[in-house]
Amino acid sequence: MNIKKIIPKFVFSIYHFKLALLSALLYGFPGYKIKVIGITGTMGKSSTVILIGKILEEAGFKIAWMTSATIRVADKEILNPYHMTMPGRFAIQKFLKQAVIQKCDYAIIEVTSEGIKQFRHKFIDFKTAVFTNLKPEHIEAHGSFENYRACKGKLFLTTRNCHIVNIDDDNAPYFLKFRAKHKLFFSTKKQGADIVYACLKSGGFSIEGVDFNLKLLGNFNIYNALAAVSIAKSEGIDVNTCKRALEKVSCIPGRMELMAEKPYKIIVDLAHTPDSYEEVFKAVEAMSHKRVISVFGSAGGGRDKWKRPVLGRIASQHSDIVILCNEDPYNENPEDIIKDIKKGIDNFCGFEILDRKEAIKKALDIAEDNDIVLILGKGTEQLMFLPSGKIHWDDREVVKEILTQKR
Fold this sequence. Notes:
Elements: H1 3-6, H2 9-26, E1 35-40, H3 45-58, E2 63-66, E3 70-73, E4 76-79, H4 89-101, E5 106-110, H5 113-117, E6 126-131, H6 139-142, H7 145-158, E7 162-166, H8 172-176, E8 182-187, E9 195-197, E10 199-201, E11 204-207, E12 210-212, H9 221-234, H10 239-246, E13 257-260, E14 265-269, H11 274-285, E15 292-296, H12 307-318, E16 321-324, H13 334-342, E17 350-352, H14 356-366, E18 372-376, E19 383-386, E20 389-392, H15 395-406
Parallel strand pairs: 1-5, 1-6, 2-5, 6-7, 7-8, 8-9, 14-18, 15-16, 15-18, 16-17
Antiparallel strand pairs: 2-3, 3-4, 10-11, 11-12, 13-14, 19-20
Helix pairs in contact: 2-4, 3-9, 3-10, 11-12, 12-13, 14-15
């Protein structure tokens, strides 16, 4: 019996709110003692957090950040161990407390719809709220896309100082309706007052006449960088400082992370939604290569089943060989997940290897010179949830282990 179906929703709301209050009390309400920047959206949150963190650091500030990739407080940085983009209330309040103790000037946090639903954003005085973009995700958990968007909007409802919005996104008008003392927008398409505009150029972009040449793979990182520059400008940081900081960043952990270049490229990326798949494959197609070999699955546990055949279709259209495997099946039958993915694939050309390590090994065994092996879905995640229980996992560690064995 699913207890969530028989207990009224308001009971869970009260429970989550009280946990948020208790955690804030326990750690002395640290969310009111530091400048906090909250970044929400479907894609680009982690990258934007890290990029603005680097800019603030370049400007001389001491920073802390919490992302799905890494958690950093001052000079100490660790991989996110929680398997959650926005960890639980006690973890967040503890992180903020540590940031205050270390005398950090800013704490930058990814804010998710599920986190807001469970009041993890409460008892934090967000100075700035940032909207990156919005695409269908977690629809089954929220009931509809409108409910998902409304959850994201609550960050803007409770942040009254500064709002920063990607006005190129179709959902921008929804986020623009919330009141704030200051509003700043960013775009690669529109120019005007209060708009941080990036002029796209071959090999990069420019802002206010200053050329930026990112080392990060994928043109989608232009928007992440633009969001970070917009936050910086709202804090009075000049564009040249932004340029210096961003051009030093060569990699975001688990985001188009290049694990090897020769004799074939190996790329690990967190992509797990149709839109993020499209962006990743677009970036891969811009690289010189012979074949694309994709290794992926789809998270189970009854979540977002609608996207499984869509992921299969996108990957098969852009890959020469597809290898389907476990991602996070939880208690669902992994074979059923694979069957759902294959519904979107015409003339399946590839392999079904449930064991993710064996699937990655197969990809590296068949890869030839100038191929690209793309490992999608988990990035830097440190756990995998199988029907038999959770195990330690890191796609990047597995890649390194297999490459060592092959030498």
